[in-house]
Specification:
mainly alpha, two-stranded antiparallel sheet, 7 helices, 6% strand, DNA-binding
Length: 158
């Protein structure tokens, strides 16, 4: 089987999303917005910001639990934690019940980095939304509760 044949057989296994399909349009819009609002001032990658944000939100957490929360492999999280620690954004605290394990805890600098990243993202979202006509802005505003619920549901299903 050639590479073309493999591509063709794979593409026939999945239904093609409809251009006007709500979920497809929403996924594309969220992806585009997300790429445009990623924080860049501190030079912290999206993966680092996500992991650090989870540590700030949850509090002290074991690296394995953080990996599950972030839906990444344990070795990936080990690397992320090492980089965050090297930058002074997290610290390790020994696990009093397991001498082989430790907790990851955000430092004050880590909390500040998340606050700056969130502020920067909010600024960028506000700039994007400021171009919308009032009726579209009202529709986006009305959808926030549902989007927050969907986001929370996604977190609890991991």
């Amino acid at each position: 089987m050639t590479a073309t044949d493999q591509t063709e057989s794979t593409s026939t296994e999945l239904p093609a999303p409809e251009e006007n399909d709500f979920a497809t349009r929403l996924a594309v819009a969220i992806g585009r917005i997300n790429r445009r609002i990623r924080p860049t001032r501190d030079g912290i990658s999206h993966g680092l910001i996500s992991a650090l944000g989870s540590v700030v939100r949850v509090g002290e957490i074991r690296p394995g639990d953080l990996a599950r929360l972030e839906a990444v492999a344990a070795p990936t999280m080990t690397r992320l934690v090492a980089v965050l620690e090297e930058r002074g954004l997290v610290t390790r605290r020994p696990d009093p019940t397991d001498g082989r394990s430790f907790f990851v805890v955000a430092t004050d600098a880590g909390v500040d980095a998340i606050r700056r990243a969130r502020f920067e993202r909010a600024e960028r979202v506000a700039a994007l939304l400021s171009t919308l006509p009032p009726e579209q802005l009202a529709a986006v505003t009305a959808a926030i509760d549902g989007l927050e619920t969907a986001a929370q549901t996604a977190l609890t299903q991991r």
